[in-house]
Amino acid sequence: MRFSRPERLTPANGKHHFFGYYGVCPWDITGRYFVCLETDFQDHMPSIGEKVGILLLDTDTGKHDVIAETNGWNFQQGAQLNWLPSDPGHKIVFNDCDATGTWSRVLDVFTREERVLPMPIYAMARHHDLAACINFGRLYKNRRVTSLPFSIDKNKDMVHPADDGIYMMNVTTGDARLIVSLDDVWKADATTNAVDDELLAEVGTQCWIEHVAFNHSDTRIHFLARFTDLFKSLVSAMWTCNVDGTDRHLAVPYYMQLSHFEWIDDTRLIVTMNWPDKTHKSHVQLTDKVGQGSWRTIAAEKLVVDGHPHVSPDKRLMATDTYIADGKRRVYVMERDTETLHEVAVFDNPPEINGNVRCDPHPRWNRDGTRLCFDGLGEHGRQVYVVDVS
Predict the structure, then answer these.
(1) Are 94 and 105 in contact (CB under 8 A)?
(2) Where would I find the H helices in the chain?
(3) Exposed e or buried b for every residue in 189-207, given b needs 16+ CB within 10 A?
(4) Do the Cβ atoms of 353 and 377 come closer than 8 Å?
(5) Where do the domains of the chain lie?
């Protein structure tokens, strides 16, 4: 295989540019227009009033324009910016907030016509105007790195409330309903059901939802149920369920140190976790609703650190990345049939750009799998880079 050298896609205009999370396509349906975020700073988490710009980039001409601004963002997952599945050549959806509430906005990138939705999104479906939504106020307390600058949680004193969890929102109408409650997932697992709620409440522990994504036909989602134990350790389990909340399955139990995920298709997933060796992360393929008998490591001798896996549209390739090692971050592309691994990018990571303001590469394929983009650090600060794949 051949890969071009990484090229900066975003403008050198004195601003920082990034997209945010992995596994979401920033290109429109034509492949010409690219959306990302533009900010003046990268050294601290945003507060209300420190807005980020939504940048529309014409990749044919290089012309770019800030078409909107939002308060609802962070460096790790951006503004949950997506092209709208029903109109991916004209409309985008992204989050916003102020000190009193959170919501999302649907915007036509050309006419600037806009409408507001009652809830912020966490994950968009691939082919339908359907969004999984969570309580970002609860996330603010427990994982500031992926939250919005909004801290109100009506159930702040409850470990696993029955009226909070994952909501499924119709993006056309704005109608939303709770499909999985925190109480549901807490009581469904023997590990958490055996924990003393009063003791956890005394130390301020909460259960929360994170890392939701739709499978390829938008029939099921995966999500993480998380809490901090009495030793202040982050504990996570991965569940799957239908988009109406039925047929829940515990895919990966607690205490496996799992972190990142990717649907390969409707039933197979890739998960990074401490298995089978508990001393380091592996990329593990598993099958939904089958159990641990389906687990197998991917490139077991090569992929021995955590990463953000993203499979190409034709399923031949898997992109992933690394956290900081020896002051550098790396981006890889693996040929899935042979598990041949190619390093396609490496960049220096200054020690001060870490923690909540870190710049994870977060690989993202275009719609035909011929280009891969990722966020990186260089002479122009935080920018989006692209590699051509042939």
Answers:
(1) yes
(2) 136-142, 182-187, 190-193, 197-202
(3) beebeebeeeebeeeebbb
(4) yes
(5) 118-306
| Residue type (1 letter), 211 | H
- Residue 69 burial (C-beta neighbours within 10 Å; 0-12, 13-18, 19+): middle
Cβ-based neighbour number of residue 180 at 10 Å: 24
Helix (H, G, I), strand (E, B) or coil at 201: helix
Q: What does the alpha-carbon distance between residue 205 and residue 199 come to, in Å, rounded to a whole number?
A: 9
Asked whether residue 198 carries a pLDDT value surpassing 90, the answer given is no
Measure the CA–CA gap between 236 and 227, rounded to whole angstroms.
7
CA distance 298 to 245: 30
Which region, left, alpha or beta, applies to residue 99 given φ > 0 means left and ψ of -120 to 50 means alpha? Answer: alpha
Which helix H or strand E contains 269, and what residues bound it? strand 268-273
| Model pLDDT for residues 151-162, shown as the tens digit of each residue | 999 999 999 999
d(CA 67, CA 35): 10
pLDDT at 376 over 90: yes
